[in-house]
Amino acid sequence: MHFVLATRNKNKINEMKAILQEAGMSVTVHSLDDFPQCGDVVEDGTTFEANAVKKAVAIANCTGMAAIADDSGLEVDALGGAPGVYSARYSGDSADDTANLNKLLNEMKGVPYEKRTARFVCCIAMASGDDVKTFFGYADGRIGTEPKGKRGFGYDPVFYPDGHDRTFAEMSESEKNSMSHRYAALMKLANYLKKQV
Fold first, then answer.
1. Domain range spanning residue 38?
2. Which CATH number do you get for residue 29?
3. Which one is catalytic: 40, 44, 71, 93?
């Protein structure tokens, strides 16, 4: 099976490849870097699913290959679900991980431990021709008060998954992948694909 991942984000590409391989999928995975003619897709949907579907369909149409796209982010209960679909650009359109993290921690100042609940959400969309399927994954946890750990990306340094006293950024790649929102969604995709063979 050949797929194109509808992203140029190296962290996401590596993570998705590793998870699909772990699921026992013999797939050849391409990224958008292999298709310079395909432009970036504007993520202007109001839900993770809308953004993932839009990206998958656009890239499938551009490449003529089955495309897998994800939209994912962090929902913090004390912030009414923010940053949500704006997770990657929480502190502005040219935001980076550090700026987003700092904004989140500033907005969480004074929020007590028991109210720092949050979840990572991932929607994976697979588009092939006119057929689109979506798969969801979640990781529940809490937001810490300061960044810890050097691994991972995004909000990983402040996210403590339920039942753990280390952040995603303090865990090995395989440990994080075993419980991440992206892992859960990709495993659902992998199980679906195995049934199609």
1. 2-196
2. 3.90.950.10
3. 71
